[in-house]
Amino acid sequence: MEEMKVTKFPEGFLWGSASAAYQIEGGWREDGKGITNWDQFVRIPGKTYKATTGDVAVDHYHRYKEDIALMAEMGLKTYRFSVSWARIYPEGRGEVNPKGIEFYENIIDECLKYGIEPMVTIYHWDLPQALVDLYGGWESEEIIEDYVNYAKTLFKAYGSKVKYWITFNEQNIFTSLGWLTAQHPPGKFDDQKTFYQVNHHVFMAHAKAVLAYREMGGTGKIGASFAYTPSYALDCKPENVMSKHDYDELKNFWWMDVYAYGRYPKAAMNYLRKKGFAPVVTKDDQKILKAAAAEIDFMGVNYYQSCVCEYNPMDGVTPYGTMNTTGVKGSAQVLGVPGIYKNPANPYLMTTDWDWSIDPVGLRYCCREITSRYDLPIIISENGLGAFDKKTEDNKIHDEYRIDYLREHLKELGKAIEEGCEVLAYCTWSFTDLLSWLNGYQKRYGFVYVDREEEEGATLDRYKKDSFYWYQDVIKQDGENLFNIINN
């Protein structure tokens, strides 16, 4: 479209940053917290980079006041964080842990003290292990009511203070890595029938929680956050264009259509029925999904990269190749589904050390697609760059590569807004450095450097990176400084 002049971001735009409980808190057995699936999974040899765990993480459990004071210094308008289910219900159900309720209320109050809007993620991958042991966790529909009970507990405890709720973080990622590639808990490989049924259970938990929030009188905004990887056809060869459509139905719309419409995409469902992988969906389920879709307020988007789609022959690559978790560039393999698509590298884009394509335009692309397809407001709940940051002898961290990355993505986001996309918030990943799941602590994302490596025992002191001051200035000017060069 014709370029529109972008001057700054809208008034009231929520400039934010994000985190997740397991990746930052530590205190894994303190004050009555129960064991989670991740507490157990990281103890399996070979699962994480150099056997790193979240036992201590970056000790946010004891340093949250220091971290939130830094957020206030930066000028954050919103802070997205997750609640650990096992801190609230150590056994996943039964007795509430008052110390858990108190901890998150303290975080919320500390944010509000500085005028920072708390944005709460109810589930960010850490499931009470007790529910896995009891009935298989997400593999059983029994978990739906336990999740809803947990969500209602949070709504009751914090509903008067929290205006933004995210039911699930990256449902597509924790289920695919948990049941298809065995890289996340429960570590199952190529269990496609269970994978799709698990996803249906998560969808039902999301839907019932959304409806419960409204039934309890909740007037804030609620939705889910999806790890969205927009796709491009390799070229105009029809079979490659068709591979893009198939990819979108199976990898993107399968989730977003349920959130926004309350139904599964037809072509994908027909394909899965023929393969014998389709989930069991009752008529009552369909009614509940549709009712919840009418009540969500936004589409949450975690955006890191785009992908390329090319037809994949029946004897082609599989979904089960090597993922780059070491930061050794070029070690990731091309993946795909035989007979449908594969995802080769984009020759026009640079990549991170973890082989993720760097595509600022892709952020604009996904906002435009959500706006056209779903007509929903958007929250960018994650966007950021993982890199090998180094601290100098005088305690400086010069991460100009992160500044470049975020600047270019924000410029494209500004264009999307000018083109008609309603974007409520932009949350970087992440505020402090943290445990990057399988990648350990070497993959740093934060504006604030935390003094620790894979081994425990470092000071965990905080140091502001160059990007901290840059984002502080962006917030102060509502992004006007991003566009001065473009418009002059």
From TrEMBL:
Q: Which Gene3D superfamilies match?
A: Glycosidases
Which Pfam family name is an example for this entry?
Answer: Glyco_hydro_1
Query: What EC number(s) does its UniProt record assign?
Result: 3.2.1.-
Question: Do you know which SUPFAM superfamilies this protein is assigned to?
Answer: (Trans)glycosidases
What are the UniProt keywords, alphabetically? Answer: Glycosidase, Hydrolase
Give the annotated active site: E382 (nucleophile)
Q: Which top EC class is named for this enzyme in its record?
A: hydrolase
Instruction: Provide the family line.
Output: Belongs to the glycosyl hydrolase 1 family.
Q: What is this protein called?
A: Glycoside hydrolase family 1 protein
- What is the organism field in this record? Anaerostipes amylophilus
